[in-house]
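Input (structure):
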């Protein structure tokens, strides 16, 4: 029976692949249509009237009338929407808000998710992902089995209020179409539990149930937290790898953080070339991209999902009047901060992610990091993509594996030179940590020419410092900060020593 359902899904995905074809073949037309549609739909909202949306005819008009926004700029409007006020940033009343990691001033951000945004962006993106996956893997049996879900949680904004907020994964699970529910495990009461420690134990109970385990074909989530689940499954069963528990497992749909540092670990958990990895870019603000080809390490930008995209070049990031460019103006291999206008009422909103284009025909991207996660203390312009690549290469050379890391600057003091300081949690630690640090530094120089220039003969920067930390340090630190859960990510890079110093103190305290 399930194979019949899988065959129906496959036929449907074949039919809807024309959507992805349109994104490949007519990308600028689709973006122009969304530009016009978003402005038209929002012209009678408070925001639309304030910014003269009815008189905007061109992209230049839009840039002139609407400044680039950060969360603080939109927060007063969003706060009113959460109180139930309609027609503020988007027509009608918004009842769903996704909860994201906070800003400098707030522990959390609350992102509006209108009905249109939920259906035509988040849900549409999941359909686009499975369409791309089944196109690349026509013999897939994902929907002949069970998809194992790692969701977040949600809660009511106020008693008696119809408005709810939570992790975007929880909002999607809560509102999942009834037809899809039989294909997912665990049951939604477990998926949506707020207490992560208890949720993980319940998930392990379900994941080791022989009847369910034999049916699991896919898992989706942030690699960090999927690894936590996999470890607990192995601890419970005493098995050597996940395929001994889930023999029909086929695919890992991953996003949230770069996969590169985790790939070696995943290959030990899932030691089969038949297991497929598929990357997606699904943020609290929208579902933006999905991997199109299995042999590529980039993603197709989803251009027909209720989002109008702009891109902010690095040289504009600190400008008092930053100038973004539309899709047709982007260049290959140049880093941009992502700017979005959406069918939830986010207008020229800088979400904090940075991307680069690996292809312009079609438009494909890689996520390179966060605008707040880089190190440029000494003009070295090191991004997360650089450190990920350098660490993976070094681990391969030394035949070791690293599970987590973070990096911060070492400031100039007196006559001492500056540098970078790394904390790395190894699964298998190198026998010579000093030589590993030497090679890591050399690899980072080969990847980033600005870092190489600053390191030349130690003129500006000295060789990086490296501290290995015990297994579990990063997750225990996250737990101590109240950040234990699927939507929380370990900060990789910072232009300050805030996270680095916190982790060093935490390491020292837990050693005692």
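Output (sequence):
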């Amino acid at each position: 029976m399930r194979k019949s359902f899988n065959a129906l899904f496959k036929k449907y995905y074949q039919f809807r692949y024309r959507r992805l074809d349109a994104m490949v073949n007519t990308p600028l037309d689709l973006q122009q249509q969304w530009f016009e549609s978003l402005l038209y739909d929002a012209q009678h909202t408070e925001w639309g009237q304030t910014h003269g949306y009815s008189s905007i005819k061109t992209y230049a008009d839009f840039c002139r009338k609407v400044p680039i926004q950060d969360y603080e700029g939109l927060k007063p409007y969003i706060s009113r929407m959460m109180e139930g006020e309609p027609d503020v940033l988007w027509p009608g009343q918004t009842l769903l808000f996704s909860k994201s990691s906070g800003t400098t001033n707030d522990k959390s951000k609350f992102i509006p998710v209108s009905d249109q945004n939920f259906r035509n962006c988040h849900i549409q993106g999941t359909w686009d992902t499975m369409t791309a996956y089944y196109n690349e893997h026509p013999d897939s049996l994902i929907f002949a089995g069970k998809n194992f879900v790692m969701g977040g949680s949600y809660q009511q904004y106020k008693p008696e209020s119809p408005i709810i907020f939570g992790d975007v994964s929880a909002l999607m699970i809560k509102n999942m179409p009834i037809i899809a529910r039989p294909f997912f495990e665990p049951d939604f009461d477990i998926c949506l539990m707020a207490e992560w420690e208890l949720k993980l134990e319940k998930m392990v109970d379900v994941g080791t149930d022989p009847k369910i385990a034999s049916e699991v074909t896919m898992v989706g989530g942030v690699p960090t937290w999927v690894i936590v689940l996999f470890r607990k499954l192995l601890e419970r069963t005493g098995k050597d790898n996940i395929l001994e528990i889930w023999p029909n497992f086929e695919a890992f749909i991953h996003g949230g953080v770069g996969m590169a540092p985790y790939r070696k670990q995943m290959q030990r958990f899932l030691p089969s070339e038949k297991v497929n990895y598929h990357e997606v870019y699904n943020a609290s603000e929208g579902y933006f991209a999905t991997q199109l080809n299995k042999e590529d390490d980039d993603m197709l930008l989803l251009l027909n999902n209720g989002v109008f995209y702009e891109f902010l070049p690095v040289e504009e990031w600190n400008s008092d009047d930053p100038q973004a460019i539309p899709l047709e103006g982007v260049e290959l291999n140049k880093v941009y901060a992502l700017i979005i206008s959406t069918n939830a009422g986010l207008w020229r909103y800088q979400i904090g992610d940075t991307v680069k284009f690996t292809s312009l025909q079609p438009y494909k991207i890689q996520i390179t990091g966060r605008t707040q996660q880089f190190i440029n203390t000494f003009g070295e312009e090191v991004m997360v993509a650089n450190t990920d690549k350098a660490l993976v290469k070094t681990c391969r050379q030394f035949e070791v594996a690293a599970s987590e890391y973070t990096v911060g600057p070492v400031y100039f003091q007196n006559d001492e030179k500056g540098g970078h300081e790394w904390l790395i949690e190894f699964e298998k630690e190198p026998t010579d940590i000093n030589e590993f640090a030497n090679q890591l530094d050399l690899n980072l120089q080969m990847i980033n020419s600005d870092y190489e220039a600053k390191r030349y003969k130690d003129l500006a920067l000295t060789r990086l410092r490296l501290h290995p930390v015990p297994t579990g340090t990063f997750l225990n630190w996250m737990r101590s900060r109240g950040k234990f859960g699927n939507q929380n990510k370990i900060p990789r890079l910072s232009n300050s020593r805030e996270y680095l110093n916190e982790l060093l103190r935490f390491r020292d305290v837990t050693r005692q």
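Notes: The chain has a mean pLDDT of 90. The longest helix spans residues 2-25.
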